[in-house]
Automatic annotation (TrEMBL):
The keyword Oxidoreductase applies. SUPFAM superfamilies: Cytochrome P450. One of its GO terms (biological process) is cholesterol catabolic process. Gene3D superfamilies: Cytochrome P450 (1.10.630.10). Keywords: Heme, Iron, Metal-binding, Monooxygenase, Oxidoreductase. GO terms for molecular function: cholest-4-en-3-one 26-monooxygenase activity; heme binding; iron ion binding; steroid hydroxylase activity. This is Cytochrome P450. Pfam families: p450.
């Protein structure tokens, strides 16, 4: 059984004002999977909307592979190896690349940054709050995680503006405000060999190559040196393409999702002042509240897999080669798992959200870093004698991939 409505989740207009929660609810309540049509050259995709179905897909990479790419774009076979990163790798190679990096992202490893994080959090908030009225994205949520990323990469703070710009231009490849070239434009064909079909990707590659040339063989501990000199456990050093794509992955993943979660969380706290009061009255609850921040924000709408064989799944017949898209945002509102899923509840327990995925080999590598960033940001902000209120409309990213906020004006009251 499958859903055959004319509705398609490839329609970016559905996401113009943020997540289309009502559509997600409708599709979750409909038996089977939903088929979304796409314009040529893409071929459409199956959407997996229910929490437990999403988990089944994520934990079965033999049937639902990442190697055919994880975004909706169908990458030309001849370009796949040039564009392949950790995200688009399965099996032994994936495990080898992940092990090479994961030591930098364990809870123990990121805990050593706490003093540094508290310092830059205080600096960021001091500067923003002094302005009395400001854009929360520019002054707080974009500024903070990018400075953490700069530290991990070993690059100067003066480069953070450029890193933000590159991320905006790549992740915003469906938003006319951010994209150099919209991904569905004829002009983007010239850039089909790089991620996001974006000229910004080439600039990131050149930046990364320059850093690697400076650091190779010098025994550094930053992520660039790790990629340049690291020896994966399968004995195969990174190729030039692998260095480029995995460096680019760090630039994007190390900034975008935490940035949007911080923004959504401030928006949700302003809209739910009783929840803000709970945390102000008992700041010890903030570390656990971070899980609700993540669930409610759902900063990444989906990731894609590809069926490796004909298979029946959730009452739907899927053909080998079909795209199968798991919608994390929908799973995070599934009332089969979360009581009153549209209630923002900072004391919610249990809270097995899927904003980092939910098990399987591709569970978000940076989840511990994101958690400590969120915790420290709101421990500082919510213990200050200051209250923020909306000062204008929220402007969402035109994207069905990242649940992003471009602007959120606030004022100090």
């Amino acid at each position: 059984m499958s859903t055959t409505t004319a509705l398609t989740l490839a329609d970016l207009d559905l996401f113009a004002h943020g997540a289309p929660w009502g559509v997600f609810d409708e599709l979750r309540a409909t038996p089977g999977l939903h088929w979304s049509t796409e314009e040529s050259p893409n071929h459409g995709f199956w959407s997996v909307m229910r929490y437990h179905d999403i988990v089944r897909v994520l934990r079965d990479p033999d049937t639902f592979t990442s190697t055919k790419f994880t975004n909706l774009e169908e990458v030309d076979p001849g370009m796949q190896d040039q564009r392949r990163s950790l995200l688009e790798t399965d099996g032994l190679r994936h495990r080898a690349l992940r092990r090479m990096l994961q030591g930098q992202f364990t809870p123990q490893a990121v805990a050593k940054y706490e003093t540094f994080l508290r310092g830059i959090t205080a600096k960021t908030l001091d500067a923003a709050l002094a302005k009395k009225e400001f854009d929360f994205v520019d002054e707080v949520s974009a500024d903070f995680p990018i400075r953490v990323l700069a530290r991990l990469l070993g690059v100067p703070d003066s480069d953070t503006g450029q890193l933000i710009d590159w991320g905006n231009r790549m992740v915003g490849n469906t938003d006319p405000e951010h994209a150099d070239l919209l991904i569905d434009s004829a002009e983007s064909e010239e850039y089909k060999h790089v991620p996001f079909r974006s000229p910004a990707a080439i600039e990131v590659y050149e930046y990364g190559k320059h850093l690697a040339a400076e650091r190779r063989g010098k025994g550094g501990t930053d992520l660039v040196t790790l990629l340049a000199d690291g020896e994966p456990s399968d004995g195969q050093k990174l190729t030039e393409h692998e260095f480029n794509t995995n460096f680019l992955l760090l630039v994007v993943a190390g900034n975008e999702t935490t940035r949007h979660t911080i923004t959504h969380t401030m928006k949700n706290l302003m809209a739910n002042p009783e929840q803000l009061d709970i945390l102000r009255n008992d700041p010890s609850l903030i570390p656990w509240a971070v899980e609700e921040f993540l669930r409610y924000a759902s900063p990444v709408y989906h990731f894609r897999r590809t069926a490796t064989k004909d298979v029946e799944f959730s009452g739907t017949q899927i053909a080998e080669g079909d795209k199968v898209v798991v919608w994390f945002a929908s799973g995070n509102r599934d009332d089969a798992v979360f009581d009153e899923p549209y209630r923002f509840d900072v004391t919610r327990n249990p809270n097995e959200h899927m904003s980092f995925g939910r098990g399987g080999p591709h569970m978000c590598l940076g989840n511990a870093l994101a958690r400590i960033e969120l915790r420290i940001m709101f421990e500082d902000l919510l213990t200050r004698d200051v209250t923020l209120a909306p000062a204008g409309d929220v402007d969402f990213l035109r994207s069905n991939f990242v649940h992003g906020i471009k602007r959120m004006p606030v004022r100090v009251v």
